[in-house]
Amino acid sequence: MKAPAIIASALLAAAIALPASAQIALRTKRIVSTGLTYPTYVTHAPDDATRLFVLEKAGRVRIVDMTAATPTLLATSFLDINAIVDDVASVGDERGLLGLAFDPDYTVNGQFYVYYTNGGTNNVARYTRSAANPNVANAAGVVMMTWSDPFTNHNGGWLDFGPDGNLYIAVGDGGSANDPGNRAQTLTSQMGKMHRIKPTVGGSAPFYTIPAGNPFVGGASTVDDTVWSYGLRNPWRCSFDRETGDLWIADVGQNAVEEIDFQAAGAAGGANYGWRCTEGTSSTGLSGCTAGSPLLTAPIHTYIHTSGTTGGYSLTGGYVYRGCRIPQLRGTYFFADYVNNNVWSFRYNAATNAKTEFFVRNSQMTPSLEGATVNQIVSFGEDAAGELYVVDHGGQVFKIVPAAGDGPCIRPGDIDGDGRVNGTDLGLLLGNWGGAGSTDVNGDGTTDGNDLGVLLGNWG
Fold first, then answer.
1. Residue 290 CB neighbours (<10 A)
2. Domain match, 305 and 405 both
3. In what side-by-side order are the strands of the sheet with 388-392?
4. Measuring CA to CA, which of 16, 228, 237, 420 is 20 to 30 A from 453?
């Protein structure tokens, strides 16, 4: 029974250097080049690999048919609520149709949810797909939540379902400078918060219930029971890690700092992310909370307002890559700056609060081989397989692919990306035992027996 040990020893001796994320050559593949006006987001319906859904600010949800050799933007909108959405005529205006989330049981109940602004109000509404045509939604919807918004900016607008089956909704502080109403720190205000609700299926009001465990249930009668966390300025594009369930919140700063906040899966609600008394980790000198207090949850990453590749002026949050096309990047978080057009990535170990493999991706990400340039990155998105997309506010959608081109998914455990799970991959995994990076096949932060099991399960 010495053979396995001998083989493993030989593989370790022959193993080449672990391929790091920096060595993975990427590019962007243009999916949609024309036909979109101010797109703001791209996503997919559960278990649907055939379509992408793209939001337009003016109140339309468009469908991209992914089944053809060349993805096709359908002429008919999936949903058109332009009549009740702020039809903004400027790319710089922060109002409009901002968020879309499909119910986890969408294939059964046909429900989905949108976030939009309309004449000084922010709204979360429920719609359903047509029974006759899955590419068209029913025109009538119901407003589940609505609140007055004192200014036109800082609306937030992201919403999605967490691993607990609840709907999370990110709302900005209401706008203007320095959060003049201290709304982000005031629990009686819906502004500057992450909300959590449990939507009901069909029926009339109430359209949702309050999930058990919401942190402020049973408190003062004036406190909003839907609040999950607070102290946010303008959360622009959040995401759940589809494998771990961790929540990433990209919060746009004011005059100095952009920040990325993080909540581990299963953590209790009630986190205070510090705005308006802190911007990033710096004190603003404003009231509402105490900068540096242990009661505040500090960001895991910040960057300052500056030109060049080290900073920017307006953060666009992204996703942790969990696709199968580029296994070396599994566990890597991508994000961008809207103004400077920078794209970055890093890996994060929540147990040690450590970031590794931090890279500037501009040379790989912002040019496109189709003759276009990726700029004004307003959002990232995922398809059903976990592959990542980039939304250019100017009207284009791109997919992040290997430099060699798009292609079939690579099996989990194919660490070197050669299309096979074999001894070379095993050698790489054993050679980095206990470490992180691309050998961490299941993305839990450590290369261990769990990753070995996945690799062996896909052998050959």
1. 13
2. yes
3. 26-32, 396-402, 388-392, 377-382
4. 16
Q: Tell whether the torsion through CA atoms of 361, 365, 369 and 372 is positive or negative.
A: negative
pLDDT at residue number 164: 98
pLDDT tens-place string over residues 170-215: 999 999 999 999 999 999 999 999 999 999 999 888 999 999 999 9
Counting the structural domains of the chain, the total is: 2
Secondary structure (3-state) at 413: coil
Q: Which domain holds residue 11?
A: 1-19+415-460
pLDDT in tens, 327-340: 889 999 999 999 99
**Residues in contact with 370: Cβ distance below 8 Å, sequence separation at least 6, in sequence order:** 29, 30, 33
- At 157 the three-state DSSP class reads coil
Handedness of CA 451, 454, 456, 460 (dihedral sign): negative
Confidence grade of residue 151 (pLDDT, cut at 50, 70, 90): very high
Residue 339 CA to residue 343 CA, distance in Å, equals 11
Q: What is the pLDDT of residue 21?
A: 52
Q: Percent of the chain at pLDDT above 90? A: 79
pTM: 0.89
400 and 419 fall within a common domain: no
State the pLDDT at residue 23. 61
Same domain, 320 and 419: no
Matching residue, tokens 């299309």 = 419
Q: What are phi and psi of 62, to 5 degrees?
A: -105, 155
| Chain center to CA of 274 | 21
Helix 449-457 to helix 423-431 angle (10° resolution) is 170
- What Cα–Cα distance (Å) separates residue 324 from each residue in 137, 284, 335? 31, 43, 19
Closest by Cα among 43, 109, 117 to 78 = 43
